[in-house]
């Protein structure tokens, strides 16, 4: 079917091409005959219009011997000398005509010569259309001097019958071609549109896809067969768009993960290597110092283990292998139990956690284990970046419209306003250098991922420290 339609299109094209070629061949044959009639006259006119004016050599000598000067007196004297031999004078300084003793428009002459104007300081002769022009350029004075003899004509080869013939021929060409195109369009437009419109639409769609534009669908309404083809094309385009987006997202996450691992593992590895080197070199000479070195190395291995665990967790999130188990949860009871457990872990640290006016009777459907991970990551972020000797963390939950709003605030230094929109991005850290504080930039990214998966949202703001606000849908009791 497609092959037959392509054959019809080709037949239409060949028919129109023949019509154009035959018409143009006849037209050119007639016009070539007309041109031959005037060829001899044209040549004679050209020869007679290209002769040098009398006294050209004397003018060349005058200009060669003249000392270029922008002074009015010098220019007037030169004009007087040229006038004796039937030449007019035009002077241009700094691209402005400052003297002309002829009705001839010197500015048009300058534009006409254009790039052909020599600037080597010598006298040059130009012959064109019954005119002889001698030019002299002086770079020091930024001066161009023109000695002009002959008649000026607005058009090339004026008063020549050939001009009229050429204009008529041009009009004839335009008229014939226009008439031919119009007639051809009248008889073939509907047939061509019927056959080629859907093909052109698909062709443009394929061209856009080749150029990387997958957002614009193919739009066609007409024959049902072509509609099916166009719909299938759009489905294919949507599938490719989604596949490309997934691929780009995966590649970006993979590259950033490798970069993050290579950096964040370097610090503890360097510390462990230094500790072992110190022990080998005998730097630790007492049991106490050796014990201190080993404790340092052990803490660093714990850091590496936490990092690898978090990266493994991140990998499970990215591959969609992290199932969520939702349970009906009462917030006041859950938060009180969480704070009690967490306080046991930080009893030797100068951190104070308090729950502020938690409203009782608020329920949400959440994964309790992943909610614990969310809170752990937020509190760990405050411990690392609050930059305060006595860290205070306040947890509050209240009802807002149909959502339970969980606020976790610290009394730290907060985050610069231009970086707040980015703190939930993967591998983002607010410090200018990754070496300022330990961390991998995954904690808050995991928070956002899990909150989104639970049907909520998360944002942050500075309010006497950093406040992270989580909104989760309220579940009727």
TrEMBL record:
Q: Where in the cell is it found?
A: Cell membrane
The answer to whether UniProt assigns keyword Membrane to this entry is yes
Q: Does the keyword Membrane apply?
A: yes
Positions of the HAMP domain: 193-245
Sorted keywords for this record are: ATP-binding, Cell membrane, Kinase, Membrane, Nucleotide-binding, Phosphoprotein, Transferase, Transmembrane, Transmembrane helix, Two-component regulatory system
Molecular function (GO) terms for this protein are: ATP binding; phosphorelay sensor kinase activity
Gene Ontology CC terms = plasma membrane
Q: Which InterPro entries match?
A: HAMP_dom, HATPase_C_sf, HATPase_dom, His_kinase_dom, HisK_dim/P_dom, HisK_dim/P_sf, HssS/ArlS-like, Sig_transdc_His_kin-like_C
Enzyme Commission number(s) of this protein:
2.7.13.3
**Reactions it catalyzes:** ATP + protein L-histidine = ADP + protein N-phospho-L-histidine
Histidine kinase domain ranges (all copies): 260-476
Where would you find the membrane-spanning parts of this chain? 20-38, 162-183
Its topology with respect to the membrane?
Multi-pass membrane protein
Q: What is this protein called?
A: histidine kinase
Originating organism: Desulforamulus aquiferis
């Amino acid at each position: 079917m497609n092959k037959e339609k392509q054959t019809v299109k080709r037949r239409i094209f060949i028919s129109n091409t023949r019509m154009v070629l035959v018409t143009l061949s006849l037209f050119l044959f007639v016009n070539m005959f007309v041109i031959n009639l005037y060829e001899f006259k044209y040549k004679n006119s050209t020869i007679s219009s290209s002769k040098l004016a009398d006294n050209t050599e004397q003018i060349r000598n005058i200009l060669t011997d003249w000392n270029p000067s922008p002074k009015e007196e010098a220019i007037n004297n030169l004009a007087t000398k040229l006038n004796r031999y039937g030449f007019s004078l035009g002077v241009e300084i700094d691209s402005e005509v400052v003297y002309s003793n002829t009705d001839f428009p010197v500015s048009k002459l300058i534009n006409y010569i254009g790039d052909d104007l020599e600037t080597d300081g010598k006298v040059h002769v130009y012959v064109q259309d019954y005119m002889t022009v001698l030019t002299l350029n002086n770079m020091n004075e930024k001066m161009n001097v023109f000695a002009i003899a002959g008649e000026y004509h607005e058009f090339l080869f004026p008063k020549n019958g050939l001009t009229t013939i050429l204009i008529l021929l041009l009009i004839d060409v335009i008229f014939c071609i226009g008439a031919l195109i119009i007639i051809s369009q009248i008889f073939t437009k509907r047939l061509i549109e019927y056959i080629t419109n859907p093909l052109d639409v698909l062709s443009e769609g394929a061209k856009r896809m080749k150029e990387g534009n997958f957002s614009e669908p193919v739009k066609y309404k007409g024959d049902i067969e072509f509609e099916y083809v166009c719909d299938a094309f759009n489905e294919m385009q949507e599938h490719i768009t989604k596949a490309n987006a997934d691929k780009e997202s995966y590649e970006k996450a993979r590259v950033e993960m490798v970069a993050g691992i290579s950096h964040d593992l370097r610090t503890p590895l360097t510390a462990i290597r230094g500790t072992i080197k110190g022990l080998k070199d005998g730097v630790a000479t007492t049991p106490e110092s050796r014990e201190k070195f080993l404790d340092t190395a052990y803490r660093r291995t714990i850091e590496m283990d936490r990092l690898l665990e978090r990266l493994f967790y991140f990998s499970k999130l990215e591959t969609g292998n992290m199932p969520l188990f939702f349970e009906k949860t009462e917030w006041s009871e859950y938060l009180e139990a969480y704070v009690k457990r967490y306080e046991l872990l930080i009893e030797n640290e100068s951190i104070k956690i308090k729950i502020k006016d938690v409203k009782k009777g608020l329920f949400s459907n959440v994964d309790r284990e992943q909610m614990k991970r969310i809170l752990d990551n937020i509190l760990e972020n405050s411990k690392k970046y609050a930059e305060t000797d006595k860290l205070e963390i306040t947890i509050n939950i209240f009802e807002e419209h149909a959502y339970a709003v969980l606020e976790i605030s610290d009394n730290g230094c907060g985050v610069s306003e231009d970086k707040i929109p980015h703190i939930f991005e993967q591998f983002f850290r607010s410090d200018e250098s990754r070496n300022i504080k330990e961390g991998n930039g995954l904690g808050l990214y995991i928070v956002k991922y899990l909150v989104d998966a639970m049907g909520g949202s998360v944002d942050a703001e500075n309010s006497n420290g950093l406040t992270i606000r989580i909104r989760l849908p309220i579940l009727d009791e």
